[in-house]
Amino acid sequence: MLNRYLSAVILSGLITSPALLFAQTPTPSSLDDTLQLNEVVVRGYATNRRLLETPASVGLLTRRDLNQRFGTPTIVPSLNTLPGVRADERSPGSYRLAIRGSAIRSPFGVRNVKTYWNELPLTDAGGNTPLNALDVRALGRIEVIKGPSGSLYGAGTGGTVLFSGLGVPAGKTNIELSALGGSYGLYGNGVAVQTGKNNSAISLSYNHLQSDGYREQSAVVRDNISLIGSFSVSPKRTISVLGLYSDLHYQTPGGLTEAQFRANPRASRPATATLPSSAAQQAGIYQKVGYLGFSHEYRWNDRIQNTTVIYGSTTDFANPFITNYEKRTDQGIGGRTITQIRFPNGPLPTTFTVGAELLRNFTVDRNFGNRGGTPDTTQTDEELTARQSTVFAQAETVLPARFRLTAGLSRNDVRYGFTRFPVRSAGALPATTLTRNFSPVWLPRVALLRTFGNNLSAFASISTGYSAPSSQEVRPSAGGFNTTLDPELGTNYEVGLRGSAFNSRFRFDVTLYQFYLRQTIVRRSNAAGAEFFVNAGRTDQRGLEAQLSYDFISPYKASSFSLLRIWHSMTLTNYRFRDYQQGTTDLSNNRVPGVAPTTLVTGLDAETRLGVYAHVTFQFLDPFPLTDANTVTSDPTRLLQATVGFRRPLGQHWTLDIYASGDNLLNQTYSLGYDLNAVGNRFYNAAPTRNGVGGVRLSVKW
């Protein structure tokens, strides 16, 4: 009964219920995924409204997109089907995410993007997100809010990602066992248990993945455990819990020059006259992440409700690198509270949202010499404290003539404290203590939307973004503390049109934006390959994003197909530096590196009522510059992927799903994730040539 109640409330749009979404309302099934556009509900900007009524550019991935369209259990290919979103995997397990070009700051990892599991912050106070600590097999839904969304989600100019877990069947228990195997020693297995009985919804999953890797020095082993529970302790009160644990080790083969990449793309970074090779130094990442969060929702009545969350996290990180061996521990704590007050019956029905978010991280970081994968003499001994606070308010008003106005404002404050302790070889020197308190910034957002009937809407918005340097940017990889690096500030202008036609079988979503970014943060490397960051004047970022789909078969009519859909996403960009001087060289008007001028993704999804299904995806990227000077460009990317499978109930309780998937079927030699402005021109990280994977899922429900 609990899940049915939650689903009815959320889909009705009467309340905003972040904590209730912890109860894991079922993710879209095969039928649900073909719902009309005006029935699709999104959570962005705390509205829980139909996508048609949401005045923002939002990309949505369902469980089919995440776990069925591609065979290999990685989040990367699914994210790359969304216009304006680009995910890289420079080595297995090393994810990099760009929303509208934000990867210029990310040599590795995820920065300048805020992420949440419902209302629980996953991005820490230092602006870093351990995306590789999540397993895609434990995800049921992802929402990507593109562009700055600081009026509600705090500091960030790239965008916001909202995660949800697997769906829990109402009133039933479901157990799913899975196993897969593929090229280059790929192997994985998993078990997921969900139960939705006795006014509770609980989901527990464990997933294992390992691979020898396509390149030398590129093996990976990952184990993930997730626990999600929601408990209705009274008609007005819901308590939820999220627990995550990830144990990840992956080797880092390192970047190659173009000559090395052409000669042998499977090689790891070789030794030079002054530096050893990646293999000799056993370069890699050892990362253990633990996360525990609690959510409490209280509904005073049908007009007022509050959701408050708290969390704690810990990270144990080690990185043997070419030049050093880094050991780091992070402890994070934080919380978020959000209250909604609705006035639905006035002359102008309005919903007010007010809240605050406070995050704090404490990091102990030590650098050692690296002697063949073993830490040697201590080089640096440092501590870093990061604090980030946000206070926000938003009003959403229904106006006459089918208009809807949204106005929001937030105050953002980011502070760092840094201490460097002397190492033994330096003698009894005093510790060095520095602080960096960035001036608090107010971030407004205004959006106006109008609906035209039940199948068409248009919106326009003006939003501001602010992104302080992350903890990995104020502290260069060689150690120290950068007191001169300033935050990014930006203003985004955006218009969009979305709708459907032909009984909702044809759907479209088109967005045009212009983003003016000041004090843009970019990466630099010294001769040894250690990275640091500088401000690079400003950038003008213009883009067009479009997503189209057409269903040949109506799901509500008798046919041998339950789904036959062709879809296409397109991203056109023109990102340019302005007022950018590098030494004596003027780089103004150069293209921003790492952003393809044209990205096209086309797919075909087919499912039959007999249980046979197929998904085909083709991706094309134009060449793009790899340096600020635009002197080196990437190769064009042409990537064909396909999955075929058979899913069939076995009696009343069992379901069997068998599939086979092929990746890079055109057998292209390409780089999935270039190193931008790479020292020594080592730009290339080769992705696997043609490869395959097969797997099976067996579930029982009672």
TrEMBL record:
It comes from the Bacteria. It is a multi-pass membrane protein. Residues 249-665 form the TonB-dependent receptor-like beta-barrel domain. Belongs to the TonB-dependent receptor family. The keyword Signal applies. This is TonB-dependent receptor. Residues 51-160 form the TonB-dependent receptor plug domain. Residues 1-23 form the signal peptide.
